[in-house]
């Protein structure tokens, strides 16, 4: 059994939203495709018609609650609510790794949390169209 060269540890990631880097303000980020499959069984027991519908993407993120909301990722998402916004997400920086650039529709995120612990918020945003996946180039 060999080593799989394509795996990665999510670290040293990057999340740029409208040219602002928020790498130190999130703990989880994912682009999630939803591709429904439709099937139709015909009168012939061996006859089935199957097709995939268009893929719809969502952007899921867990962010760090900030002591000062101003200038935070949570604040940026809340302030841009309803306005199409461009983001570039890179799970692992480094030449040859993959990044995704996409447009999503922000909305307000949670505020507050549990006493005595670091608090986070979870949100899911609709992506407009398909993400553009590209290799990370040297800077």
Describe the structure.
With 139 residues, the protein is mainly β. Helices cover 5% and strands 45% of the residues. It has 1 helix and 9 strands; from the N terminus they run E-E-E-E-E-E-H-E-E-E. The protein has one helix at residues 73-79, and strands at 14-17, 20-21, 26-34, 37-41, 48-52, 56-64, 85-90, 98-104, 120-135. The strands form 2 sheets. It has a 7-stranded antiparallel beta sheet, with no helix packed on it. A hairpin with a 6-residue loop joins strand 4 and strand 5. It is globular. The model has no long low-confidence stretch (mean pLDDT 86).
Give short descriptive properties of this protein:
139 residues; 45% strand; mainly beta; seven-stranded antiparallel β-sheet; two-stranded antiparallel ribbon; 1 helix
Give a quick summary of the entry.
This protein is mainly beta. It is built from one helix and nine strands; from the N terminus they run ββββββαβββ. A hairpin with a 6-residue loop joins β4 (37-41) and β5.
